[in-house]
Design brief:
By secondary structure, this protein is mostly helical. The chain has two domains: 55 residues, Arc Repressor Mutant, subunit A; 51 residues, Orthogonal Bundle (434 Repressor (Amino-terminal Domain)). The chain has eight helices and no strands. Helix 2 packs across helix 3 and helix 3 crosses helix 4. It starts with 6 loop residues before the first helix and ends in an 8-residue tail after the last helix. 22% of the residues are buried.
Amino acid sequence: MKPTLSRPLLDVLGLTAAGYSSIEQAEMLHLSVAAVKARRTTMIGMFGARDRAHLVALAMQAGVLDFKPLDLDWLPAADVPVDRLVEARLGKGWTRGTMAGLLGVTAAVLRHRETGRQPFTVGLARRYAQLVGVDLGGLT
């Protein structure tokens, strides 16, 4: 039987399978540690698992998780060189609105990232850097 999991449950399951602790998951998902544990406990009950390792194994057997790398592009990125990105954008003569259009986000969303009000996600930072020609190395 393949349980149907909501996006929030899948997020916790995927990060659990990737080996992240409850504290790390809470930080990445902007949740409390108790909320992460409650979601995992819900899934342990759904699958009839004994613990988190058994949960991951049963989820893989049920086809809920597979062995491909997790898509973590939606997670907040650490150490994004925002000043370098903005400088490169300005060097190309692109306005914030132009860049936002190329990235498929609103100018307000981009402003919040460029001013540090909200963090860049891994995926957005990678796309931005690619467009302006800045090497971010192994951004995670």
